[in-house]
Amino acid sequence: MTEKSRNLEAEGEFDYDYVNDILFFKVKNREYDRSLDFNNFVIDIDTENYIVGIQIFDASKFLRMDKIHLRDIPNWKFQASAQDGAIEIRLFYQINIRGKIVEGQPIIMKDTDEDLPSSQMITASH
To answer: The pTM is what?
Structure first.
């Protein structure tokens, strides 16, 4: 029997720790349950098994930009999905560098042994 995919769209927030170079995107008002650790990333899971957050360590290196630009990301979207033992996270962002809008769309894909139901979550800045 094929499992039906679940979808969640919610308001989100981001935070950037300049000193430690950690970028954090998360869904607001979701009950945290546990985390999955993948080298430079930590993915947060809620009590309903949705992916509701990601911490990116050494974010400036991963995104290939100066730390100063990560302090304010006015436009962003975080999309996560879990299916068939794999997690895919897509980040979409726009930042202003010296008066020019710069866009990024990195994709993070990780295999996991975690039994996550097929789901998709989308959150964005508001």
So the answer is: 0.84
